[in-house]
Each structure stands twice: as C-alpha cells, then as structure tokens.
Design goal:
Layout: H1 2-22, E1 30-42, E2 46-58, E3 61-69, E4 72-80, E5 83-86, E6 91-97, E7 100-112, E8 118-130, H2 132-135, E9 144-152, E10 155-162, H3 168-190
Antiparallel strand pairs: 1-2, 1-10, 2-3, 2-4, 3-6, 4-5, 5-7, 6-7, 7-8, 8-9, 9-10
Length: about 190
C-alpha cells in the first residue's frame, strides 16, 4: 500500500511539474511598431518620449493604437562608446489588441546609440493588469517580461515584449531531480 501511495505521489508531482513547465512553452511575443504618433529624442545625456503610440501585434491579431507609452524624460547616468545606462525610471505602458489589454510599468535600463538617428532601448515591463487573452499567452498580472524597441529618426520603428520561458536544460534538470528523488524514496522503502 505504501508503494502504491508513493507511486501515485511521484506521478502527481511529475504531472504538476510538467503542466506548469509546458502550459505555455512558447508564448507569443507582442510586437510593437511602427509608431503612429509622438516622438522619441535619444542622446548621450537624456532620452525624451513625447506622445508615443502606435501599432501592436500578437500572432495574427493587431491593434492601433495598440500600444501607448507615457511621456517621460530619462537621464543618462553612465556608459560611453555608444552604450549608456539610464537613471531609474518607471513609465506607464499599455497594450490593446482586440478585446485584450494589458498595462504595466516600463523600466528602461540601457540605450545603444550606434549611429545618429538610431537608438535601441532595453528594459523590462512589470505587468499590473492583463485580460485573459494576454494571460494565456505568457503575460499574467505580476509577471516581469523583457522589453526592447528601436527608434529611428524620432519614431519608434519596432519593438517587442517577450515573456521568459523555461529553457530545455532547466526542464531536464527538474526531471532528473524528480526521478532521483523517486529512486531515493524507493530504495529507502526497500530497507
């Protein structure tokens, strides 16, 4: 009876771990741009966002205004050679595609200015609310997702929001750990 209970417990643990890891193995990224309005002024001293909004896409769905970015001026606090660190910042950011919407706080960490007129921003988006459509594709409330976008000649030309997904090596490590635990318990029960 103990062995049956142990086998059921191990199977339940494996099922829970597998369903959590594979519930959404490849979330659909949200693609941003081009902007329909507003300007972005990027320089080695500060980054200025003014009235920026435009297209957003997820899979075959799109919306305009699909994204909006709050007005902001962000100081540069370090770096050089075309790559700069930005001061702590928090901008309101929303995405609307069809009936689905999400909102959160965008925090930009770095900007690269490889050539005049071109800027590449990298940061994160902390999601504060999301409808079911976004939640089911890897954007639940409370998640922190990667954010990056490119501006050219003052316009946001492209960008993306990408949730983190478990990498295959992490899943393999989890699986071998669970199997090792099952073997250890099995050996202890034989004693």
């Amino acid at each position: 009876m103990k062995r049956l209970a142990l086998a059921i417990a191990c199977l339940a643990l494996l099922t829970v771990a597998a369903s959590g890891a594979w519930a959404n193995p490849i979330p659909t990224q949200i693609t941003l741009g081009p902007s329909s309005a507003g300007t972005v002024t990027a320089s080695p001293t500060s980054e200025i966002f003014s009235g920026v909004w435009g297209w957003a896409y997820q899979g075959a769905n799109s919306g305009n205004p699909g994204f909006t970015l709050a007005n902001a001026t962000i100081a540069v606090v370090g770096g050089g050679g075309g790559i700069y660190t930005l001061a702590a910042n928090a901008e309101n950011f929303t995405v609307n595609i069809g009936v689905n919407s999400l909102s959160g706080t965008l925090s930009l960490n770095t900007v690269a200015l490889p050539t005049p007129g071109l800027a590449v921003f990298v940061g994160t988006l902390s999601i504060t609310s999301a409808t079911a459509g976004f939640q089911s594709t890897g954007y639940p409330k409370g998640a922190v997702v990667n954010a990056d976008f490119v501006t050219y000649q003052g316009n946001l030309s492209s960008g993306q929001l990408t949730p983190s997904v478990p990498e295959p090596s992490s899943l393999a490590l989890l699986g071998t750990g669970v199997l090792g635990l099952a073997g250890l318990i099995r050996n202890k029960m034989k004693i």
